[in-house]
Design a protein that fits this description.
By secondary structure, the protein is an alpha/beta fold. It has one domain: D-Maltodextrin-Binding Protein, domain 2. The protein is built from 10 helices and 11 strands.
């Protein structure tokens, strides 16, 4: 039987899944498409075997293992997780959040509490409509495709940039997690080969998604090439720091260590995302 896999619908995930959705490995897995939080819910409910999930969910779901060396992250700026505001961040008191990814909400709370020393901010979940959000609140958190269209008149804070500015570390937003009891040995390499195929196809992805998202191909290409799809040592340090701060701000219990799936990664082109810039 095919592995059942939950996959994120956002543009930032397209290179990871390209080989599975469009390329040589199409139809090898049974894919379920959803927003990041939905992918985690499918995995927690045992409805899928593997999920591309927000990293904070690793601390909330028992028995998960993480595929090593592969993720969606950003060394400095992510360009699709934005805190937009009518006033400077120091003056914000009421925030509308898009909870499609709980990792981004947790990151925003950490930035306020740990970096700006603001612990009295009120957070309310709202649909990802920036105009409507800012009618009712001082500021808003937008992630994924909706964050690619931001009015230029607003104050815009890139959350990965804020994280890097205070910690000096990359930030990891999502990774592949394997449900307890799932044997992935024969099919694990599909996820790595799919990523390699996707990173080689960035120009094709940019052309195809230009019309869908109403953005120039060059802007999409720059956005994807800015992301980091490799979970290396620096990214793992960033991830561990995030878990520690999330626990410190009472967003999660004391964090469990990263349990990597015991699998030898196939030989793929190293750092293809960075080389292609």
């Amino acid at each position: 039987m095919k592995l059942k896999v939950s996959f994120i619908q956002f543009l930032n995930a397209v290179p990871l899944g390209w080989g599975l959705t469009e390329g040589a490995y199409r139809d090898t897995l049974d894919l379920v498409f959803d927003v990041p939080s939905g992918c985690a819910q499918h995995l927690a409910a045992g409805e899928v075997d593997v999920g591309l999930i927000p990293v904070i969910e690793y601390q909330n779901i028992e028995g998960l293992k993480v595929l090593p060396g592969i993720s969606i992250g950003a060394a400095r700026e992510v360009k699709s997780v934005f805190f937009i505001s009518k006033v400077p961040i120091e003056e914000v008191s009421r925030v509308a959040v898009d909870r499609s990814s709980r990792t981004s909400v947790a990151l925003l709370k950490i930035i306020f509490q740990e970096f700006y020393r603001k612990d009295s901010v009120e957070y309310t979940a709202e649909p990802p409509n920036p105009e409507r959000m800012l009618e009712l609140y001082d500021a808003a958190l937008l992630i994924g495709n909706p964050a690619l269209h931001i009015p230029s008149s607003l104050l815009v804070y890139d959350l990965a940039h804020e994280w890097n500015r205070f910690t000096g570390l990359p930030f990891v937003f999502a990774f592949w997690a394997v449900r307890s009891g799932v044997d992935l040995q024969e099919q694990a390499e599909l996820f790595y080969l799919s990523r390699e195929e996707g990173l080689k196809a960035i120009d094709t992805v940019a052309q195809r998604y230009s019309k869908r998202l109403g953005l120039p191909p060059s802007e999409i290409r720059d956005y994807l090439n800015n992301l980091d799809y490799f979970l290396d040592d620096a990214s793992q340090r960033g991830l561990e720091t995030f878990f520690q701060l999330a626990a410190q701000t009472n967003l999660i219990p004391p964090p469990k260590p990263l349990n990597l799936y015991d699998f030898k990664q196939p030989a793929v082109t190293p750092r293809l995302a960075r080389i292609s810039r």
